[in-house]
Design goal:
Radius of gyration of chain B: 18 Å
Shape of chain B: globular
Structural class of chain B: alpha/beta
CATH topology of the largest domain in chain A: MetI-like fold
Strand order of the largest sheet of chain B: 6-7-8-3-9-10
Shape of chain A: flat
Oligomer: heterodimer
Number of strands of chain A: 0
Largest interface: A-B, 17 and 26 residues
Distance between the termini of chain B: 45 Å
Strand content of chain A: under 5%
Radius of gyration of chain A: 25 Å
Structural class of chain A: mainly alpha
Number of helices of chain A: 10
Helix content of chain A: over 70%
């Protein structure tokens, strides 16, 4: 071991000891002091009941499948609508100016509204038009609301990707006689999309969680199922179950997004 | 006997960037198969001139005739013009998400409607000819600067242009890689390509060019054969520039 390595080994050892002591300290405080709170017994029974956990879990997991289904068919729609809006905002031809205005207005409106509000307005408003049976479902219109909102965010991410591709790439394509359209499709977009994959992963994770907002307008997805169990058992544990199920999915997904982001940053430097 | 129609003729070409006049009435005539070198300080308008010829910068006034077609006509569809006039840039501008071969095949496929198979023989011949046969399937970031620039030249040649423009194509290269790119230019000249180069490689310009044009502040100050320009420049600014660069 040379001098530098010896020094770094000492530093690591020191850091490890400090980390261990501080972690133990925090855990001890939680374990000792939280149960000393006057309402702890009550909270333990109503949020962390083992019986309720076991009884509610199977149905909760099943309800979560609906979240996954809604997410699964929303995600591709968001990708398509987001791309179309991003392209509408990126066109240069003066003849297509109205398209740019539309794209800008779309993004302003849907980024400017709380998701819940959009879900209420579209999810209740459009079925209120008196559409025939399968088309008045809150599943459909709730999902549409989700897709419209998230497309606005994804469009902005994509647009930033498109703008990050250096102008010289465009010049190189045009100088070979390629059309604007072909330059966008073959040269700019492939580079832009690659650059914004990590950012879009984070959008998808956020949307996956926001599927739960549809519980406000009807579909019995996991959050609504939790609400039903809460009333049934007069106990809040089903919400903890829901939280646990969400974390099982979102933690690996966020870790993966971070991994992609780091890899991209390393590749660039 | 009729004088041969020039390949390219610029008359009174003007280009402004906002209030800044970059080209102030350029006249330049280039014959078929001629190699013209533009020299001059940075900012004298060499690059802009080339970008105007390729339609990447719209000119504000004046005429540019390619054969008998005025390519400075506002509103002209530039696609077909750009196929006839290729340009190679200082910074290569290869497409980083494609390998060298795909870089070369993209425009012929998209613009000329050729298939990969139709283009393959031709592309391979070009790669072989410029010593890059072993690198066809490498991505730009796996190639040296000199190799990337040669791929960029092949990419432009694959469109079968009638005129080639070179915008300081060796300025971004390490000194030991300049030679391999200049060799390519010599080979193109030997086969009769009409070429316009903006360059700082004075020795190369002197050895190879048919004509040297000295640009200063958006004006073509002096032009002539390399011997005349380098040995007996008339204009004071030309003298000063050559003195500063040839110490």
């Amino acid at each position: 071991m040379n001098r530098r390595e010896a020094y770094e080994a000492r530093q690591r050892k020191r850091a490890l000891i400090l980390a261990t002591i501080s972690t133990l300290l925090v855990v001890a405080i939680l374990v000792i002091f939280v149960p000393m709170a006057p309402g702890w017994e009550q909270v333990r029974k109503s949020f962390f009941s083992g019986d309720v956990f076991v009884q509610s879990f199977p149905k909760m997991a099943k309800a979560f499948l609906l979240n996954i289904a809604i997410f699964a068919w929303s995600a591709p729609l968001v990708a398509i609508v987001g791309l179309l809006i991003a392209l509408a905002r990126s066109v240069r031809s003066p003849a297509l100016f109205p398209l740019r205005i539309f794209g800008a207005a779309y993004v302003d409106i849907f980024r400017g509204l709380p998701v819940v509000l959009v879900i209420y307005l579209i999810g209740f408003g459009i079925p209120g038009l008196g559409l025939p049976r399968p088309y008045n479902s809150p599943y459909i219109w709730g999902t549409v609301a989700l897709v419209l909102t998230y497309s606005a965010y994804v469009a902005e991410i994509l647009r930033s990707g498109i703008e990050s591709v250096h102008a010289s790439q465009r010049a190189a394509g045009l100088s070979l006689g390629m059309s604007e359209r072909s330059v966008m499709r073959d040269i700019v977009l492939p580079q832009a999309i690659r650059r914004v994959v990590p950012a879009n992963m984070n959008m998808l994770i956020a949307m996956q969680k926001d599927v739960a907002l549809l519980s406000f307008i009807g579909p019995v997805e996991i959050l609504r199922q939790a609400g039903i169990f809460k009333s049934l058992f007069a106990n809040f544990t089903p919400y903890v179950v829901a939280a646990a199920i969400f974390l099982v999915v979102t933690i690996p997904a966020t870790r993966y997004a971070d991994y992609l982001m780091n890899r991209q940053r390393d590749a660039r430097s | 006997m009729l004088e041969a129609e020039p390949k390219l003729r610029m008359r009174g070409v003007v280009k402004n960037f906002g209030d800044h006049a970059v080209l102030r009435g350029i006249d330049l005539t280039v014959s078929e198969g001629e190699m013209v070198c533009l020299i001059g300080a940075s900012g004298s308008g060499k690059s802009t001139l080339l970008r105007c010829l390729n339609g990447l910068e719209p000119v504000d006034d004046g005429e540019i005739f390619l054969d008998s077609l005025d390519i400075a006509e506002p509103g002209l569809d530039l696609g077909p013009v750009r196929q006839r006039i290729g340009i190679v840039f200082q910074s290569f501008n290869l497409f980083p998400h494609m390998n060298a071969l795909e870089n070369v095949l993209l425009a012929p496929r998209r613009v000329l409607g050729k298939t990969r198979d139709q283009m393959m023989g031709e592309a391979e011949a070009l790669f072989t000819r410029f010593g890059l046969a072993a690198h066809m399937h490498k991505y730009p970031d796996q190639l040296s600067g000199g190799q990337q620039q040669r791929v960029a030249i092949i990419r432009a040649l694959a469109m079968k242009p009638e005129v080639m423009l070179f915008d300081e194509v060796t300025s971004a290269l390490d000194p030991e890689l300049v030679g391999e790119v200049l060799d390519v230019l010599r080979a193109l000249q030997a086969e009769g390509m009409t070429m316009i180069l903006a360059t700082h490689e004075m020795r190369f310009a002197r050895d190879v060019a048919d004509r040297i044009c000295f640009m200063d502040a958006g004006v073509m100050l002096e032009e002539g054969t390399p011997d005349v320009i380098f040995s007996a420049p008339k204009n004071e600014r030309t003298k000063a520039f050559l003195k500063s660069i040839l110490v």
